[in-house]
Amino acid sequence: MQDRSQARFPYRVVAALLIGVGAMAAQTTIPAPRSAKKLPVAEPPSLGSGLYHNPSFGFVYRIPFGWVDRTAEMREGDAGPDSSDPAPAEVLLGVFERPPETTGNTVNSAVVIAAERVSSYPGLKTAADYFGPLDEVVTAKGFKVVNQPYSFPVGTKQLARSDFSKDLDKLTLEQATLVMIAKGYVVSFTFIASSQDEVDGLLEGLHFPPVHRLAGAPASPPQK
């Protein structure tokens, strides 16, 4: 089955990832954020040797070997009326198991990391609060909330996590979204695959190394 959702980023970035990126079981378009404005982070991220390194938000992600990077395409501004939205959201990283513009009969596994201002969400106090407006939006698009927000450790850091799934004919799309608040931004980490075991495998690539490592060499040597 080909789910050809054309959804772009609405007001909730995670909702868009569920509806847009989550539809990539076959040929589809790449969703883009509403604004192409660059986030005013202190240090620019880097991508090399399969390791995405973001010193401003204090994490690294090991990209699975052979995956394709579509971050630049996902950052392109929406040419529609929402492009002037004053609350910027930006994709920090968007990688896929195979090119999302190609046709396939299996779930196209993906990892998408995005950030938007906390000020876009009046009353938001914790990372778990970010999931509050999400359930109604995603269930209307056929997603099921498998697990309500709960605390999830990544190394020594605790993030809020919620799990979702969607049936696509003979396929089942599994998704985990992790959220943290840092430096006035909501940072979301979305992992999509065909099984929970595969999602957990993708999660293993996320690390929050000590600050001194982020300021210097990568936490682990490049894979050969």
In brief:
By secondary structure, the protein is α+β, with helices and mostly antiparallel strands. Helix content is 13%, strand content 33%.
Q: How would you sum up this structure, described in words?
A:
With 224 residues, the protein is an alpha+beta fold. It has one domain: Mog1/PsbP, alpha/beta/alpha sandwich (Protein Transport Mog1p, Chain A). 13% of the residues lie in helices and 33% in strands. The protein has helices at residues 13-19, 71-75, 134-139, 196-203, 211-214; strands at 46-48, 51-54, 59-62, 68-69, 89-96, 110-117, 144-154, 157-168, 171-182, 185-193, 206-207. The strands form 2 sheets. The chain has a 7-stranded antiparallel sheet, with helices on both faces. It is globular and about 40 Å long. Mean pLDDT is 76; it is low at 1-12, 24-37, 77-83 and 219-224.
- By CATH, the superfamily comes out as Mog1/PsbP, alpha/beta/alpha sandwich
Envelope shape: globular
Please list the strands of the largest sheet in the order they lie side by side: 4-5-6-10-9-8-7
Low-pLDDT ranges:
1-12, 24-37, 77-83, 219-224
Task: Give the helices and strands as they follow along the chain.
Answer: HEEEEHEEHEEEEHEH
Percentage of residues in strands: 25-35%
Indicate the percent of residues in helices.
10-25%
**How many DSSP-defined strands?**
11
CATH architecture: 3-Layer(aba) Sandwich
